[in-house]
Amino acid sequence: MQHLDKRLSVIASLFTPGGRGIDVGTDHGYLPVALVQSGAALSMLATDVRPGPLDSARRCVRENGLEGQIETRLADGLDGLPLAGITDIIIAGMGGQLIAEILSRRVSELGGVNLLLQPMTQAPYLRQWLCENGFAIRQERCAVAAGKAYAVIQAAFTGEKIPCPPLYALVGRSSEDEGEDACTYLETLLGREEKRLRGLSASASPNPSEIAEAETLTAGLREILAARKQKGE
Fold it and tell me: Per UniProt, which keywords does this protein have (predicted)?
């Protein structure tokens, strides 16, 4: 059975049971192999824009004897890929802006698809883009792997655009995850905002609006963490 780290395990846990999925930017192909091995996925299409990682994925698929259930393909995002019959699309390990750009090219075809998105950076950008382009964030699950905290966003296209205030863009629904990894994720966000606030305040030409926003976000994160601590007591 293919071993997955905590980050990939969380993504796998949100996959539609018995679904057919696409893993965009599959890298070594560990996730599609694990999904098929466990029976969670009936079939997977594993893609990458780079030939090197795709060769690694093909090797992993071949070594596990899953050529009949996992197809590998060189592709840029979702460009040119068949989406008919696909239940899940995984886009993980990329920047939030790149994930948004990949989705933007096939928005009209994503109705009914379970989107599992894991931004390495620019998560606020991705959340804001989702809200502004008719996607609902169903839930978020956090994971700590190799000393870093990540949020996995489960989203679906509804066509309804919703407001995305700055604190929601920063936190999303990660605050609803009751696991310890969510605390680590939120504490990481707080640390970054506190550092940004110190930098803005110490600037030779401080921007009052930027400082006010950083203060609001910092206060909001502190309130979220305090409420979680109180709930756990």
Answer: Methyltransferase, Transferase
Closest CA to 120 of 15, 25, 54, 12: 25
How many C-beta neighbours within 10 Å does residue 95 have? 15
In the chain, the amino acid numbered 232 is G
Q: Would you say residue 221 has pLDDT above 90? A: yes
CA distance 211 to 209: 5
Neighbouring-strand partners of residue 19: 41
* 218 Cβ contact partners less than 8 Å away, ≥ 6 residues apart: 190, 193, 194, 197
C-alpha atoms less than 13 angstroms from C-alpha of 37 in its C-beta half-sphere: 17
Nearest-angstrom CA–CA distance, 224 and 142: 15
Q: 74, 73, 7, 54: which is closest to 34 by C-alpha?
A: 7
* C-alpha distances in Å from residue 64, one per residue of 1, 9, 47, 70, 120: 9, 18, 17, 10, 28
- pLDDT digit string (tens) for 16-62? 999 999 999 999 999 999 999 999 999 999 999 999 999 999 999 99
Identify the CA nearest to 93 among candidates 32, 9, 170, 152: 152
Q: Decide: pTM greater than 0.90.
A: yes
